[in-house]
Amino acid sequence: MKRLVPLFCLFVTAVFEAGCADSDQGLSILGNYALDTKTCSAPMATMLKMVQPLPRGTYDIGVALGGDLGYVMNMAVINNLPSRVNSSNVELNNLNLVGFEVNLAVDPASPLVPYLPPGQVGLTKRTVSAFGGNLSAGGGVAIAVSEMIGVNVAQALLKVPKLVPAGPQLNYSEILIQIRARGTGSVGNVLSNQIEFPVTICNFCLGKKVGASGVPALDITTGTPFDCPQTILNADVVTSCYSQQDNPSSCCLKDQFLLCGSMIPTTKM
Fold first, then answer.
1. How far is CA 140 from CA 17, 95, 128, 267, in A?
2. Would you list the DSSP string of 222-246?
3. pLDDT given at position 68
């Protein structure tokens, strides 16, 4: 099964009020923020005081598997260092956000433990890049869109039959993402506070059948997604910014490609 879904990365910077972080380190993570549902863009850094970070997420590994799509987070990071200039009036405490240190943890009693061993480099222990940007001293904020769970997690879990049952379930397994931001500047390398973000793991709990948003996109009897109908109206399709996570999206198979959300061709009536 093939998959076509665009994945973009954006980066914006602005000045945010200093002193908002609960860490005494020079760099702090403010949280993971939802994309705008209409534009699928991250919130402006200047608007973060008006919105709350997401408390948790959901990763649909069934939808994610075919398209190399991991779990994406929109991380807001702040520079807590006060302004400090040298005799040439050059700011010494600006920082560049260069990436994140990510660890994936699961409850010791979870059935996922044997397949997600702690500290396995590239699977449960990752270094994630964040592309460019200056964090101004005295409260500069950046929002970096980065993939925190790799699709290899979905691959590892779906190799084991019924480890993550398909469709809606009464109980789901959970992964805890532990994240620190990495910055660099004239002060040297800076590592932020650690945040923990819980993510529910499911298999076609978010991918929905076209025209039937209450039905999983996966045909449980065959183990494959339903084919795309010949005629599809806009009203038949549910879309979200990332089809593999957090919010429902319609999905169906067309020419062996799994199409989801806005990628599903609709007929104008």
1. 8, 9, 21, 46
2. TTEEPBPPSS--GGG----SSTTBS
3. 73
